Amino acid sequence: MRQKRQETHAPGLLRRLLERLEGREQMLLRGHPSWPLLLLSYPANHLHVAEELREAWLHTLPSLKAPVAADYREMLAHLPAVVVVVLRPRNVCDCLGHHHPRGAESRLAKRLAHDMGSEVGEIDLAWEAIRAWRPQPLSSLAAGEGFAVLHFHVALLAVLLHELEHLAHPDRQESAVRRTSDSFYSSVLDELVSQDGVTRFGMNIRPVAP
Ligand SMILES: [Zn+2]
Ligand SMILES: [Zn+2]
Prior knowledge:
Helix content: 40-55%
Number of domains: 1
Distance between the termini: 22 Å
Bound molecules: zinc ion
Order of helices and strands: HEEHHEEHEHHHH
Oligomer: single chain
Strand order of the largest sheet: 1-2-3-5-4
Strand content: 5-15%
Radius of gyration: 16 Å
Structural class: alpha/beta
């Protein structure tokens, strides 16, 4: 997902080589039975980002009332049983995330697919780029520390679901996929900023280390 609307493309080879030199850890997220298992792969000293995504996937997504969230939950049933989510702070190409076309997955995903004897999908997310992303003016919404944390939570989910929809529906046009994720971003942000959202999610929103 590019910050502005452009064609998708594969991330750089150099980046992948660098990642082999850096220790990475994995976290498996098991949500609703019809959803894929998410295998998060993150730099060893950035457990906090994996925890933020776990909170969003296991607790926030199932609870959202927005109709677009219900559409996404239905979409998740069309994905491979396992999806690898490669987390890194930023991409050299400045994208927020990518879905990896069949055959272009990492060695981790290929090894998993081989061992399981089934298809394994893969996407990547650039969490610092997502944290800084402001696709819409936020003047009508609250500012401050609490909002920054909430915004990051919603933006992470929006980009994750955007890339997962590409995997589930490879033929779907970028403009359509982007329309859904833009709608998710704004309606879920509204939902969570509302008093009801603060009440429901206030306890889940923890400060996130930089
Ligand atoms: Zn896209
Ligand atoms: Zn890119």
